[in-house]
Amino acid sequence: MKLGAPADTTRLVALAQGTYYLASGLWPIVSIRTFEKVTGPKVDDWLVKTVGALAAAIGCVLVVRAASSDAPPDPLLGTASAAAFAAVDVNYVARRRISPIYLADAVAEVALIAGWVAARGRSRR
Fold first, then answer.
1. Directed axis angle between helix 6-30 and helix 102-124, to 10°?
2. 35 CB-near residues (< 8 Å, 6+ apart)
3. In total, how many domains does the chain have?
4. Is the distance from CB of 123 to CB of 115 less than 8 angstroms?
């Protein structure tokens, strides 16, 4: 595979998203105190840690598939998870249930979706 091939773009998007999800998912598990300093207090720490574990699991799959020569990254997993996180962020910020800092995550999620769309466009050429 030559550098700059469409598969490289897909792997790069998967690696970026996977790394982001691993870091952001593990953060509340490793230090709920610092996580809440940035994102605001939470009622149920167990739920925050559960969502974090799920994000980290998605991230792990994306990173492993980005690095694997046996199986390509999964654009559906990447796009669907980014869309789900963005929808939750925007919905609950609008309802004033979570801190507006979550809109920064929504922007990152939309950027990831755009990355998957661009990678798909490159693979069709």
1. 160
2. 27, 28, 48
3. 1
4. no
